[in-house]
Specification:
five-stranded mixed beta sheet, alpha/beta, 154 residues
């Protein structure tokens, strides 16, 4: 999908398309071992290998909205992403995100931050990731620096 095709979509269609694209990219990244889940794990990756990070997803819900420590982590992660030209979005349903990124054992304690990484050998690419980058680029042009995406119902 080109930028022009994304721009002519109606806002509701764009939101649905973007939510589906995010879910698709997360599942594909997980299957290809290109996904880091968790605030602290993500911070470690950003510190060790920032050039390998290509997309960031932050998630919260009403239960965590007032957690000051989490909000400080989000602010630092957002700043880091802005400084390193990493596209970033927010989802408002952490439980739904956790269902998508959960590992095979079903264990997952922290799905507040997910990083999508470039594969080590460069073999993994997902066309839906380009849609997400275009969505973020368009949002930034409208001064929406961390756009919110609604994940599709499962």
């Amino acid at each position: 999908m080109t930028l022009e095709e994304v721009l002519i979509q109606k806002p509701v269609e764009r939101a649905q398309c973007t939510g589906k694209a995010l879910e698709e990219v997360l599942l594909s990244a997980k299957d290809n071992n290109c996904l880091t889940v968790g605030v602290y794990e993500s911070a470690k990756v950003m510190n060790v290998d920032p050039d390998n990070v290509c997309f960031c997803v932050l998630a919260t819900d009403e239960e965590w909205e007032c957690d000051i420590a989490l909000q400080i982590h989000f602010t630092l992660i957002q700043s880091y992403c802005f400084d390193n030209d990493i596209s970033i979005v927010r989802v408002n349903n952490m439980q739904q995100l956790a269902e998508i990124v959960r590992d095979k054992t079903g264990q997952l304690e922290d799905a507040h931050c997910c990083l999508i990484m470039n594969s080590a050998d460069g073999s993994w690419e997902d066309p839906a990731l380009e849609k997400l980058h275009l969505f973020c680029e368009e949002s930034r042009s409208l001064n929406d620096w961390v756009p919110e995406i609604t994940l599709p119902k499962r």
